[in-house]
């Protein structure tokens, strides 16, 4: 691709996202191969297309490893760079099928986890378990009375001994690890707290907080303040003293449990908030099933959205003739795509949105708590 190309034509998200090219190219290549293989096993890709993609991606990795990958200004991130280079090797039509059914958000997270896992494995031999015991070592040279350290360790429930006395006494990792763990947990609590603040607002009304976890407003009598949720985002810190931090985390968990167990959902308001544009990806997937590369269907779906906005006609009410004018490969059964329940139930894989998948996720979580 020429570096002078227009960003709006070449950037995958039309220039809305940014990011540097990091060390994740290997994880990106092998993660993409695994995803393409899954699409092949699910008959989304033919064997020929999969083999072309796999071979092309391996060639991309060779270019990275040889430090010969030419960075172009329009590349937003490593996934973009890999896919563009793949298109140069095997052709854009085939390369455009690589991303079928895959969000770049999940791709980047997957790549990061793959890379981090491999890096941690390199360090694994040097890691010291937290569940070790330092009693009986004195301040430096161990205990002079030949006490049974193993018996003490066993009684206290530690997994094993730390053999080196100076290292064991100096090891205060647990003091820093606990606040770090607590900080990460608080980030998760903060994230869903912010979601519930939005969804409990008058604009959405999807959920209602119990009176015990909200307060009235001194001026606006109709307003309910989600104080219990507003507390969580303000406590995200790993700089507090350990004891105070643990107390903060404990209190936050207690509040979180109360909020969730008393939360009142408003399904009718949720249904009323449904928007046909939510099915834009389903529109793209419809053409994917007819053999059109996802990158092309993504653009076609975008044109359908633009047509809906221009005409003021909801996308699910666009006539077959109007959709046909956008792309001739639309057929009359396209109307079946605009079905929210069908869209949800089609995602019946592990972690998906179908009723059976969600119930399975709930069962797994409940089992993990036993």
TrEMBL record:
Protein name: Argininosuccinate lyase
Keyword Lyase: yes
InterPro entries linked: Arg_succ_lyase_C, Argininosuccinate_lyase, Fumarase/histidase_N, Fumarate_lyase_N, L-Aspartase-like
Lineage: Eukaryota, Fungi, Dikarya, Ascomycota, Pezizomycotina
GO cellular component, one term: cytosol
Organism whose genome encodes this protein: Colletotrichum asianum
Segments forming domain Fumarate lyase N-terminal: 127-231
Keywords, comma-separated and alphabetical: Lyase
Signal peptide segment: none
């Amino acid at each position: 691709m020429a570096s002078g190309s227009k960003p709006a034509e070449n950037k995958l998200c039309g220039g809305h996202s940014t990011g540097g090219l990091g060390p994740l190219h290997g994880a990106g290549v092998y993660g993409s191969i695994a995803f393409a293989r899954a699409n092949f096993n699910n008959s989304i890709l033919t064997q020929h297309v999969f083999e072309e993609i796999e071979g092309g991606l391996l060639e991309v990795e060779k270019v990275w490893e040889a430090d010969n990958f030419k960075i172009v200004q329009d590349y937003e991130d490593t996934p973009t760079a890999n896919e563009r280079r793949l298109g140069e090797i095997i052709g854009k039509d085939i390369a455009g099928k690589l991303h079928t059914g895959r969000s770049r958000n999940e791709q980047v997270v997957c790549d990061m986890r793959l890379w981090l896992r491999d890096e941690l494995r390199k360090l694994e031999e040097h890691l010291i378990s937290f569940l070790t015991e330092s009693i009986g070592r004195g301040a430096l040279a161990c205990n002079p009375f030949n006490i049974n350290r193993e018996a003490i360790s066993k009684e206290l429930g530690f997994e094993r001994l730390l053999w080196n006395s100076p290292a064991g006494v100096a090891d205060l990792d647990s003091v820093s690890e606990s606040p770090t763990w607590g900080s990460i947990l608080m980030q998760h609590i903060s994230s869903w707290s912010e979601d519930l603040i939005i969804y409990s607002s008058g604009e959405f009304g999807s959920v209602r907080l119990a009176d015990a976890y909200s307060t009235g407003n001194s001026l606006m009598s109709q307003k309910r303040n989600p104080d219990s949720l507003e507390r969580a985002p303000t406590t995200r810190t790993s700089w507090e003293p350990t004891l105070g931090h643990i107390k903060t985390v404990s209190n936050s968990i207690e509040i979180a449990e109360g909020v969730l167990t008393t939360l009142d959902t408003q399904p009718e308001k949720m249904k009323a908030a449904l928007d046909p544009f939510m099915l834009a990806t389903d529109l793209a997937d419809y053409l994917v099933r007819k053999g059109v590369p996802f990158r092309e269907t993504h653009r076609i779906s975008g044109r359908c959205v633009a047509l809906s906005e221009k005409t003021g006609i909801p996308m699910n009410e666009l006539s077959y003739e109007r959709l046909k004018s956008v792309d001739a490969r639309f057929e009359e059964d396209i109307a079946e795509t605009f079905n929210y329940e069908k869209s949800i139930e089609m995602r019946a894989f592990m972690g998906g949105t179908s009723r059976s998948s969600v119930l399975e996720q709930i069962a797994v979580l409940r089992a993990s708590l036993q």
